[in-house]
Input
Amino acid sequence: MEIYKIKANDPSFPRPSFPISICLGSFDGMHLGHRRIFLEAQKEGEFGALLFDPFPDYFLEKRREVLTSTEDQIRLLSSYGSAAVYLLSFDENFLKMEAEDYEREVLFKLQAKRLVYGEDFTYGYKALGNAERLRNLYPSSVLPLYQMEGQKVSSSLIRSDLAEGKIEEANRLLGRHYEINGKVAKGFGNGHKIGYPTANMELGAPYFLPKEGVYGALCYSRGKPYVSIVNVGKNPTVGKLTAPKVECHLLGQNDDIYEETLYTAFYFRLRDEKKFPSLEELSKQLKLDEEETRERFLSL
Output
């Protein structure tokens, strides 16, 4: 898969030597609605996607937590068979670009065989460009909103499920397991004292974290999956944290993985986070968590 970095107002854009369909959208979450757009584009042959770099909310300093980083989107698009990704620089000039200018300076210059997007797609200053307008200007496939059980599949709905700890519901809307990644950093070392050492994740992006609690997950270390117990929260038994963090105990993994990147895919929620009277009591609960996690993975 080719990756092209582009800017609006460039005299020309790099592009593949063969025509491709290009998917348009924000694609935060890469959920089933987005996947449907990619599948539609594949019907025309080779396809690619237009992404923003940085993500608009980063630039606007809204600091919204994301479901997928740009790197995640690129990785998933590659697995879906995308031939190309365009990373469009998001800057002050682009922020003020009118819909007509966006069409002329970006969309038309891509010389796509076809543009593929959802019926709620908007673009340009104050989002004055929309799907109906673009359909009349360029060969397009415009898809109706993707729904499940009469409800629109959306990033906001997935965030709502994650905020309530409804991991399995969020995964159903995503069409995959919700995943975050980050480097393993040193923690307080309390896990080692009770036989449950944890890999403390320094998140690779400002991910939207599930509701604080304990989860069953698969953690990928050096490309190998490990059944894991994952705690999202402030670890109240120790009481030294002021903000939620992610701690992963990889069952059967005893290697030193500090500074390595860990990928954590959430499968189910075990329980709420709670404060125990001692580390010994916490160890007893973690033993029960381990047993339940192993049993539930065996039944998947």
User: Anything to note?
Assistant: DSSP finds ten helices and 16 strands in the chain. The first helix runs from residue 32 to 42. The chain has a mean pLDDT of 90. Residues 176-298 form a domain with the Elongation Factor Tu (Ef-tu); domain 3 fold (CATH 2.40.30.30).
